[in-house]
């Protein structure tokens, strides 16, 4: 599974959902002007941009070198570092809040990652995360089409946090207090089928990996199944995510 891809490819693949999601997620987390916030798994900057727009003081970290470069180009004043959630290179209690958007489900050890997020957050500060719901998240229409042609394909529904209540379990296992979980949703309009489909061919994440391993015939069958389900466009994808916040 690869996220070492051009930031532009990731932006076209997931940014179209991640940007509106960031607005809802920041509101859910309750951070704002003057808060010192760590963006964990920042990607090319959807959440960073939203945090900046509400007046937060931001630091960011991600394991992908192309994403680090993208943040540095877009936000040259942001302290951005390469690294993972499980080994955050920051002092304890360095931040008012630590947020992770669409990251927990790809952590090698989600409890360790959340524990690190709690460690770098001051006592009483906020730790928050959100992930797509398995059956109704942003990638659900893609995996629904996959299952038409490949019923046994393993999708992203079993990833960490991708079901109701699982983020709460992970947060509590990491020692966070007063955990609250809720669903948040965004509506994304796709003007054409081609605009929706093309980013899946870029090799981003599990969905991109699945498309990349298909031969030409298999890829054509999947594209046809998706087109039959979604139509030529325009159509709207309602993408649902689970979000949780807790107190460090």
TrEMBL record:
Domain of life: Bacteria
Pfam families, per database record: Methyltransf_11 (PF08241)
Every Methyltransferase type domain range: 38-128
UniProt EC number: 2.1.1.-
InterPro entries membership: Diverse_substrate_MTase (IPR051052), Methyltransf_11 (IPR013216), SAM-dependent_MTases_sf (IPR029063)
GO biological process entries: methylation
Molecular function, one GO term: methyltransferase activity
Keywords of the record: Methyltransferase, Transferase
Keyword check for Methyltransferase: yes
Enzyme class: transferase
Family: Belongs to the methyltransferase superfamily.
PANTHER family (alphabetical): METHYLTRANSF_11 DOMAIN-CONTAINING PROTEIN, METHYLTRANSFERASE TYPE 11 DOMAIN-CONTAINING PROTEIN
Identification of the protein by name: Class I SAM-dependent methyltransferase
Organism: Mycolicibacterium austroafricanum (Mycobacterium austroafricanum)
Organism classification: Bacteria, Bacillati, Actinomycetota, Actinomycetes, Mycobacteriales
């Amino acid at each position: 599974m690869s996220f070492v891809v051009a930031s532009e490819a990731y932006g076209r693949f997931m940014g179209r959902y991640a940007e509106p999601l960031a607005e809802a997620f920041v509101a859910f987390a309750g951070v704002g002007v003057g808060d010192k916030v760590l963006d964990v798994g920042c990607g090319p900057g959807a959440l960073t941009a939203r945090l900046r727009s509400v007046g937060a003081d931001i630091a960011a970290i991600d394991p992908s070198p192309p994403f680090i470069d993208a943040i540095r180009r877009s936000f040259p004043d942001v302290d951005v570092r390469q690294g993972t959630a499980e080994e955050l290179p920051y002092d304890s209690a360095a931040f008012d809040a630590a947020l992770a958007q669409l990251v927990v489900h790809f952590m090698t050890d989600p409890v360790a990652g959340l524990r690190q997020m709690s460690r770098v957050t001051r006592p009483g500060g906020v730790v928050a995360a959100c992930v797509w719901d398995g059956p109704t998240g942003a990638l659900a229409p893609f995996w629904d089409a996959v299952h038409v042609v490949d019923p046994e394909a393993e999708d992203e529904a079993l990833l960490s946090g991708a079901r109701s209540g699982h983020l709460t379990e992970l947060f509590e296992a990491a020692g966070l207090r007063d955990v609250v979980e809720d669903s948040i949703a965004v509506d994304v309009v796709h003007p054409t089928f081609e605009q929706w489909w093309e980013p899946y061919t870029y090799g981003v994440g599990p969905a991109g990996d699945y498309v990349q391993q298909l031969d030409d015939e298999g890829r054509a069958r999947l594209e046809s199944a998706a087109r039959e389900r979604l139509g030529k466009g325009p159509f709207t994808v309602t993408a649902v995510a689970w979000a949780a916040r807790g107190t460090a």
